[in-house]
Structure prediction request, 214 residues.
Amino acid sequence: MTRTEVLDWLDRNGSPRQREAMKRYGLPSDNAVGMSMGKIQAFAKKLGKDHALAQQLWASGGYEARMVAAYIDEPDKVTRRQMDAWARDFDNWGTCDTVCFVLFDRTPHAWRCIDRWSRGRPEFVRRAAFALLASLALKDKEAGDAEFLAGLELIEKASRDDRNFVIKGVNWALRGIGRRNAKLKKAAVALAKKLAASDEAAPRWIGKDALRQM
Prediction:
């Protein structure tokens, strides 16, 4: 299918009720047609992998179009420049987390992007760093403990950022690392205890919640 055909299909199959429901979850509805994740995934599966089409759909700016782009893009063709550009476009947690969990974590650039994005100022760029770290903690079977111990250092540095989606992303990554193996759990718990004892609200919440869930 062409870009136009995909966008037309999304428009025809969108739901005003679903679009209205998105607001309750903090997702954008102005540039959305209203479609469940299951329907998006099924449609993307039918399309198959297509890097060029993914770029075109992302450029359209539509919420569901960008979701489809994440599912159909080809990880081995994704460059760091593309990852940086898409991260700068993130304006909601749904797009950010989906792209990190179904595409960016499969690229060879993931670890370097985590390091750089964790120091970025935009809320969803920083969120992306820790969503990506959480995904790798869950799925990267080749990474050693050293990468995740370094990730804990990034978590500690970012823990004072009190923006909602950053806090939740940092917490998510901390819990993910803690569940990877016994050694990393010990290190993650130690950091969580340190954060929980903080005088500042953001690290204190991150630490206490992580301890409760680990």
In short: The chain has 13 helices and no strands. The chain has a mean pLDDT of 97. Residues 123-139 form the longest helix (17 residues). The two ends are 45 Å apart (CA to CA).
